[in-house]
Amino acid sequence: MSETTSTNEQKKPPLNGRRALPSNISNEEENEVPEMEPFGLIPRGFNPKDYLRVVDIHMFKDPHETNKQQHHTDKYYNPKLIVRRGQPFQIQIDFNRPYKPETDQFWLEYLIGRYPQQNKGTYIPVLVGDVLKPGEWGAKITHKENNSIRLSIMSSATCIIGKFRLYVAVWTPFGILRTHRDSATDTYILFNPWCQQDAVYLDDEKEREEYVLNDVGIVFHGNINDIKLRSWSYGQFEENILDACLFLMDKAELELSGRGNPIKICRVASAVINSRDDNGVIAGSWDNTYTYGVAPSAWTGSVDILLEYYSSKQPVRYGQCWVFAGVFNTFLRCLGIPARLITNYSSAHDNNANLQLDFFLDDEGKVDTKITKDSVWNYHCWNEAWMTRPDLPVGFGGWQVVDATPQETSDGMYRCGPSSVQAIKHGHVCFQFDAPFVYAEVNSDIVYSRREKNGAQVIEKIDTNHIGQLIVTKEVGGDGMMDITEEYKFQEGSEEERLALETAVMYGVKKQTPQDTAYQPQRDVDMDFQVQKVVLGSDFKVTITFRNKSGNYYTAATHLSGNIVFYTGVTKNEFKKHSFSAKLEPFSSSAFDVVVKSSEYLSDLMDQASFHFFVTARISETGKILAMQKATVLEIPTLRIKTQGGMVVGKEMSVTVEFTNPLKQTLENVTLRLEGPGLLRTMKKEFRQIPTNSTLIWEVKFIPKRPGLRKLIASLNCDALRHVYGELDVQIQKL
C-alpha cells in the first residue's frame, strides 16, 4: 500500500504559495471524478440501484445525424461529438426506469483539464429547465418515451474551446451518483461563426463556407510583375488534426480558462507555429540548404506537418512564410475561427522600424551590399483571422493580421498579431498587437542615398510606391485572386493616405525626415527597365529605357547588377555585371538591351528561380543619379496530372503525374508528392535521375472516401529545381 501512495504523491504537481491550484494548461490531463459522492454517513440499507440510474447515453455523433449536420462539423474525420458553441445540440439518456420529474433530480457536468473549477469555466454543471436562453448553458427535455428522455443542450457563446468530458449526476438523499468515465461521450466544442453572440460571428454564408469549411486554398507567390499561384491543402477535417490543433494550445501553455478568447488563441498560436524560442511546429530555413529535412517548396499541405509534430513533439523541418501561413490557416479554420491566407507583394522587412528601407550607393552609383541591411521580400505571406476586438475602441474588429513567420520578436517572443487591418489602414498603430511592424511592411519608402567624400549623405532617390504595391488573397468560392490592397491602405498619394501616415507617425512610428540630407530629384531624365519573361534554362534580355525630357544632350554612365536572391530579397551572389555609356538625345527616348545567358545564372539558381536587378545611371553633365530595382521570376515547368477510369466513392481510381525535364542537366534525387484532402493521404515517390528532355510518369491508385469536387495537388522537388507544382480538380460521384 505504501508504494502506491508514494507514486501518487510524486504525480502531484508542486503547489506554490501563490495559488491554491496549479495552472490548468492541458486539455489532455484529467482528474478522478467520484461515482458516488456521499453527503455524510451512508445508512446501512442504502442501495444505489433503488434510485434513478443511467443505463446509456446516445450522442447522435455520426456525420449524417442531426448534431454534426446542424453544427457544420460533419466533415471532421472524428468519431466523437463535435459541436459549435452557442447553438443547441441533442443527446438521449436511457434510465433504468421512467424518469419522474416530481421526485427525480439529475443534471449534466462538463469538465475540461485536470483542475476543473466552476468560476474558470472548466467545470460546467448544466441544470435541466423549461427554456433555453440563447448563448447560455442550459438543457431542456424535448421528448420522453418509456425509460428514455431526449435533451436539447445549449452551450455558452463564450465557452472554452476544447474537448470536454461528460458526466450525468443523479441526486439521492444520501449523495450524488455519477456515470462512470466514458470517453465515447467526450464532446468537442468549437468556435461558431454561425452564432451572432460568438466573437467570431461572420454574417455571410458564402464567406463562412470559404473561410471556415474550405479545406484547400491558394498561395500566391512569385513577384509583383509575375504573379504565380499554387494550391495548398489545409486538411482541417482530416483524422487527428483537431487533436493536433488542441495539443498546440497545450504546448503553448495557454490557460484553459483563456481558450474561449480568439485574441489570446491567435497570439499564442502565432508563437507556437514557429520553432524559435518555444520548440514550436515548424523550423524556418532560408539558406537553400535543407539537409535532414523537407525543402519548404516540397510541402503540398499542412496535414503531414501537423501530424508529424503531434507525434514527435519536435519541430518539423523546414518552412518559409507560406508554410507557416498554411499551417496557421489550418489551425484557425479547424477550431472554427474564419481565416484566410494573404500575400503582400514587395513586403518591407525593416530592421529598424523607421518606415524607410535604406539602400546605400557607392561613388559609382552601385549598391553597397556591405552596409545595406534592409531588404524587400518579393512577397510575404501572413494570415487574417476574423473576430471582434472588445479590447480596442469600436470599429477595429473584423479582419486581424496574424503572422507566424519568425521575423522580429514581440514582447520577447517571435510572434505577430492579432493586429486590426482597419487600424493599420488609418494609421492607428497604437493599438495592440504589433501594428507598427505590419504598417511598415505595407507602407515603407525606399531611400537611395550616397555618401560624399566629405561625409555628407546625399539622397539620390525616394521611391514611395514600391512597397506593398499589391495585397491579395484567394477569392470567395473560386480559385481567382482578390485584390485587398484597399483594405490596408488608401490610394497612393491621396489626402487620406497622408493623414494615415501622419497619424502613424504621431503614434510613434519613426519617420526620418531628410533635413541634413539634401534631396533634389532628377527631373529631366526618366529611366525604366523591363526584364523579358522566359522559361528556366533560357537566355533572356533586360531592356533599359531613358526618356530625356530636356533640350540638352546627356551621357548616362549606366550600371546593371543582376543578383540571385532569396525571395526575402537577401542577395546570395551577383551573377551579372554590365556597364555602358548611354548617349541621350534631347526630347527623345532611347532603349538599350543587356543579354543574360543561361550559363551565367543556372549554376547558382535557388529555390524560387528569383532574380533581382539594380540599374543605376549617373548623368555625367549634372552628377545626378537615377536608381531603380526590380525582382523577376523565371517560368518554372509544371507537373501534369491525369485521371483514368471512373471516379466513384469506394471504387479504385488511377492518377498519373507526368513531368518533362527542361534543363540542360540531369536532375538527381527527385522527390514527387501527391495529396488531396478527402481523396488520399500524401504519397511520396523518389526518382534517382531524370535526364535532360526525358519524361517521368508516376501512377498512383487509390480509393476516394468522399463525394464532391476535390483537388489533387502534386509537387516535385530536387536540389536543382524547386517550386514545381501541378493540380487537378476531380469530381467524385456517389455510389
TrEMBL record:
UniProt catalytic activity: L-glutaminyl-[protein] + L-lysyl-[protein] = [protein]-L-lysyl-N(6)-5-L-glutamyl-[protein] + NH4(+)
Transmembrane segments: none
Subcellular location(s) of the protein: Cytoplasm; Secreted
Cellular-component GO terms for this entry: cytoplasm; extracellular region
UniProt GO BP: blood coagulation, fibrin clot formation
Domain of life: Eukaryota
Sites where the protein binds Ca(2+): 443, 445, 492, 497
Region (Disordered): 1-41
Cofactor(s) this protein requires: Ca(2+)
GO MF, one example: protein-glutamine gamma-glutamyltransferase activity
EC number(s) recorded for this UniProt protein: 2.3.2.13
Sorted UniProt keywords: Acetylation, Acyltransferase, Blood coagulation, Calcium, Cytoplasm, Hemostasis, Metal-binding, Secreted, Transferase, Zymogen
Transglutaminase-like domain location: 313-406
Cofactor note: Binds 1 Ca(2+) ion per subunit.
Database matches in SUPFAM superfamilies: Cysteine proteinases, E set domains, Transglutaminase, two C-terminal domains
Gene3D superfamilies in the record: Immunoglobulins, Transglutaminase-like
Active site (catalytic residues): 321, 380, 403
Quaternary structure and partners: Tetramer of two A chains (F13A1) and two B (F13B) chains.
Stated role: Factor XIII is activated by thrombin and calcium ion to a transglutaminase that catalyzes the formation of gamma-glutamyl-epsilon-lysine cross-links between fibrin chains, thus stabilizing the fibrin clot. Also cross-link alpha-2-plasmin inhibitor, or fibronectin, to the alpha chains of fibrin.
Protein name in UniProt: Coagulation factor XIII A chain
Naturally occurring in which organism (per UniProt): Centropus unirufus
Lineage: Eukaryota, Metazoa, Chordata, Craniata, Vertebrata
Gene from which the chain derives: F13a1
